[in-house]
Amino acid sequence: MLIQLHNAGKRFNRDWIFRKVNTAFVSGNAYAITGPNGSGKSTLLQVIAAALQINEGGIEWQLQKQKGLKGIDEEEVHSHIAICAPYLEVIEEMTATEFLQFHASFKPLLPQMRIAEIINIVGLQKAANKQIRFYSSGMKQRIKLAQAIFADVPILLLDEPCTNLDASGYELYHQLIEKYCRHKLIVVSSNDINEYDFCGERLSILDYK
Ligand SMILES: Nc1ncnc2c1ncn2[C@@H]1O[C@H](COP(=O)(O)OP(=O)(O)OP(=O)(O)O)[C@@H](O)[C@H]1O
């Protein structure tokens, strides 16, 4: 997977959030987008996810095929991406099992993974059949992470992935990235070093103002 931005710029009304972003995101690497609150990290992540359109420049998404890279349409990008972000709501009426089944009906799970096993791995076995609306905020974050990390797609986008997690949650997060996401293209948007310490590539949004 290759995502390339050419002189990409995004504004809301008259305020430019970033301009002249020239960068490539490549499979197998992990990237951190850093910057203070309100600087535009989530906005750039949503541009990469094709959830927001840029106002200048270009962006290309290319998928690895047997015969090399093949461009994909903007409308198709979402099917190759899994995302965990504070603004993505969980379906509160569902149980963890139902929620993961629902997601798996759109995007397959990693090969050989079963839903009960995933729920065990993220430490929610006792709450597997409880409606998510009765979960604590840390438990909700664990199921959101599970939904994204165990999806069999080449791009994993993580916006503040350890929000509400305790120390064991941070540890779990690092284990999951290490064990299940090595081959993926990972982009983390965060200003907490503990969320992006494994990212070899770093991009400060303040360099694009
Ligand atoms: N839909 C929108 N319409 C207008 N302005 C917006 C919109 N979405 C975001 N913004 C503005 O764009 C700027 C960047 O917001 P963004 O959420 O990308 O920042 P961030 O770096 O992710 O912040 P945080 O660290 O607080 O999550 C902010 O000034 C925000 O108010």
TrEMBL record:
Annotated ABC transporter domain residues: 3-206
GO function terms (MF aspect): ATP binding; ATP hydrolysis activity
One Pfam family per UniProt: ABC_tran
Keywords recorded for this protein, A-Z: ATP-binding, Nucleotide-binding, Transport
InterPro entries: AAA+_ATPase (IPR003593), ABC_transporter-like_ATP-bd (IPR003439), ABC_transporter-like_CS (IPR017871), ABC_Transporter_VariousFunc (IPR051782), P-loop_NTPase (IPR027417)
Matches recorded under PROSITE patterns: ABC_TRANSPORTER_1, ABC_TRANSPORTER_2
PANTHER family: ABC TRANSPORTER ATP-BINDING PROTEIN ALBC-RELATED
Protein name: ABC transporter ATP-binding protein
Species assigned in the record: Ilyomonas limi
